[in-house]
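Human:
If only I could read backbone structure tokens as easily as an amino acid sequence. I am handing you a single protein, as its sequence and its fold in token form. I hope you can help me see how the letters and the tokens relate. Thank you; the sequence and its tokens follow:
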Amino acid sequence: MILAKGMQMLIPEDSPLRKPPNNLSRKQILILDGIRYAAEIADLAYQRLAANLQTITGSASKPSSTEIAMAIADAWTVVDSVHRFHDLVLNMPGLKNAPWRRLLSERTKDFLELRNSVQHQLGELNNLVSEASQIWGYLSWAEVIGERHTGKWLMISPGSHYAGDKLFFMGPNKLPFHVPLGRIRLNAFGKQVYLGRAVDALHDAIAELSNELSNGNVRSIDTPASNRRDVDMMSEGWITVEVSLEYPKKSSLDNEEIQNS
């Protein structure tokens, strides 16, 4: 599997999420596919965002609107994927309501609320105006060289700004929970969330779900899905197009049909 330099896949090739047990139903397999891709999308979006923000940090020029849009897109992709992941895990048939599922809800609560806010931006407009906020929020992060923070903090914010707007982008030296080195924080709709914390929550949930599948703890619901061919397929095909420059000759039957029409 070829990935961009430095990027890693969250779910290994031999994971039971890629090759689920044969006794599960088609509906269960569909939900597992949704869970796997929601996790992969969130993880890859975060990796790409972290790399791009550190590239912006090391550049002497101001980031372009395209670079800012790419960063904002990746940030909100993480939020949206976390929301999808949470919903699918909590509604997975045959999966026991283990403590790790409740912990997932607790760790992603702010992200679920953020996703609902961004899905209803028009309803949030009055609050955004009164709080002098931005419709897409803003990103803040710490400069990292090697494995150490330099003490420098940066921020990018899409959209218009006005005198008196307050953007609190510097973060504390210590946090009560683990976050990746870049400490990427999305500040939007009155919330400040560390995106890496949600990705960590997905990592832990994936490990727990993989164990449940491997140990046969996911109860089969409905008829087992049979004849599964492959996973993540790609197919190729060709079509030969033949073109003739000669018009077909009209038959006497064609002329008769024209006269009777």
Residues 26-57 form the longest helix (32 residues). The first strand starts at residue 138 and ends at 145. The two ends are 62 Å apart (CA to CA). The chain has a mean pLDDT of 84.
